[in-house]
Amino acid sequence: MSATPPTGSVPSATGSAEWMRRIFTQNLRLKLLSIVLSVVLFSIVHGAEDAQRSVWVDVVALLPPDDAGKILVSEIPDRIRLIIKGRRSQVNNISTESLPPVTIDLTDGRVSRYSFFDQEFDLPAGVNIVLIDPASIPLAWADRLEKEVPVVARLEGSPGEGLALGRPAVVEPASVRVIGPHDEVDRIRAVQTEPLEFAAMAAGRHVERVPLARPQPHVRYDPESPVRVTLDIVQDLADRTVEGLVVEAVGGEARSLRPERVSVALRGPPAQVDLVDPARLVPFVDLSALIPEAGAVAVPVEIRGVPEGVQVERIEPAEILATP
Asked: Which of 43, 127, 157, 293 is most exposed by smallest CB count within 10 Å?
């Protein structure tokens, strides 16, 4: 006779799976509602707790008008840090973007220190300030001065081979108004532009817009816009004077030439001018049209033997007295 399993023995695998399914599915709506209520209750309780965090607030300064004669020479921070405390839900919703800037009034130009107070910051009710960093700002003032000074082009490098700057750079406008602390502005004699590199410029006229060099702290220009710099790049020329050249007579004979020697001023590329051989330069006067009985006549002096590329700027004297 076979044995019957006792009551209360371990259920089969199929029975266990059914039993677990009933645990999770029985009264499912009530179970889900309980979970939702628990989450909501946790959020309410957690959101009601106090929390603390740091936020930044932008600073806007109202400075004295020009006619006040004062200028601020100390630095004002762009923003300050607040440590705030309040309900977690409120504190977490506050950001730098959501806070309006704090405005400090310095228009009288006499305040030596500005202190911040809680009432200056627009925070929601229930949110308190624990710390303001910095709590105050030291202020230093100077007498204001403005004056007109010339603008000078700052040129860097040198023209390419065979080129030169034809004339000093022309700056427009030629002057600018400088505004700032009296002692600093009083020392400024001229304002330079930012460096202008002209080594790669070809021959010709070049017009460039160039910013003014950055001023010292607390100093500004009026206007602050770039200036126009005009450069004339020309062929590089050198001058040379050869003296004591003996004048020859051609086309006839001369009893006398007064003076007998002249000077010649030459101009051309430096390398060519340097290589000119004075022995090859021959000044002369043409007597072919003179009448022998005419007496002393002023005759223009000409010259030959000048190399190609070199110009005769002048001959001194340009005429001599020739007596045929």
From this structure: 293
DSSP state of 11: P
Q: Which residues have a Cβ under 8 Å from the Cβ of 51 and sit 6 or more positions away?
A: 85, 86, 87, 88, 91, 92
Assess contact for 235 and 163: CB atoms under 8 A: yes
Task: Give the pLDDT confidence of 259-281 residue by residue, as tens digits.
Answer: 999 999 999 988 899 999 999 99
Nearest alpha carbon to residue 88 among 113, 119, 53: 53
Dihedral sign for Cα atoms in the order 218, 219, 222, 226: negative
Instruction: State mean pLDDT over 71-77.
Output: 93
Kind of pairing between the strands at 248-250 and 282-286: parallel
Type of residue found at 218 = H
Asked if the model's pLDDT at residue 46 lies above 80, the reply is no
Predicted confidence at residue 314, as pLDDT, reads 96
Would you say 55 and 84 are in contact if contact means Cβ atoms under 8 Å apart? yes
80 has a pLDDT exceeding 90 = yes
3-state secondary structure of 122: coil
Bridge partners, residue 310, by sequence: none
CA distance 168 to 158: 13
Name 7's Cβ contacts closer than 8 Å, sequence gap at least 6.
none
Which structural domains are found in the chain, ordered by start? 50-139 (2.170.120.30), 144-235 (2.170.120.40), 238-323 (2.170.120.30)
Report the distance separating Cα 227 and Cα 172, nearest Å.
Answer: 6
